[in-house]
Amino acid sequence: MDLNVQQKFANYPAHVAARLTMVRELIFKVAKEDKVGDVTETLKWGEPSYLAKTGSTIRLDWKATQPDEYCIFFNCNTTLIETFKEIYGDTFIYQGKRALVFNLTEPIPVKELSHCLSMALRYKKIKQLPLLGA
User: Fold this and answer.
1) How many domains, in total, are found in the chain?
2) pLDDT tens for residues 80-109?
3) Which residues form the YdhG-like domain (predicted)?
4) Is-contact 121 58, C-beta < 8 A?
5) What is the pTM of this model?
6) Could you give the C-alpha distances from 9 to 21, 47, 65, 101, 108, in angstroms and in order?
7) Where residue 92 sits, what CATH number does that domain have?
């Protein structure tokens, strides 16, 4: 884990860090399964961020002002969130064109989220396809 990201995770409450670690691990698992190559892990805007050369940046964060929620952010200039809404409807809670919002007490819809992460990690290769090739 990138040292700056490791420090960021260490500053989250333990239950938040555990959930975000699960999402982080899912990103790397999907990247490996999709054979997208190396995923760069860093902090962008103070948030853990993940980028494959073939994709669009994925960021994670939790804010004390919304203590029961955490978000996975996507570039709002992409069609990712729009596509997720079309495919998955009310499976997720959406924040505009930029984020999926999750409740810390609810289970992660792993299959659906994995597909969304896959589309983000491969975005540059699939952005011209209807529904991103879904």
Assistant:
1) 1
2) 999 999 999 999 999 999 999 999 999 999
3) 18-120
4) yes
5) 0.94
6) 8, 10, 17, 18, 19
7) 3.90.1150.200
